[in-house]
Amino acid sequence: MVIDNAMQPLSEAFIKRLHFTLKNGTSDSRKDWFAVGEYKRVPNEVGGRDTAAPEEVATKIGALLYGHNATKSTLWNRLLSSIMILSVFIRSKTEMVVWADLFFSRNA
Hints:
The chain has helices at residues 12-23, 57-70, 75-91, 96-107, and strands spanning 45-46, 49-50. By secondary structure, it is mainly alpha-helical. A two-stranded antiparallel ribbon has the order 1-2. Strand 1 (45-46) and strand 2 form a beta hairpin.
């Protein structure tokens, strides 16, 4: 799914579809509070660090996607960037801004 879409603009719909594909049928998907294929509904932390509040996620993801899609890069860089962004999304959905800052500052 990721490789087939590597040269397409990354979108919220694609990220949510990938999240649904990867998390549907898992133990997380059976939890009432877990939002399979959607943004989180409850606050969380990752590694002892606070993450974006649920009401901030859509805005922060939108900003990240804008920056990601505005870059001109090779297929390999876009694929690597997409995989990195999606893997962080799957892990926490809200740490993406930190990873994006690291990636885009090195690959601008």
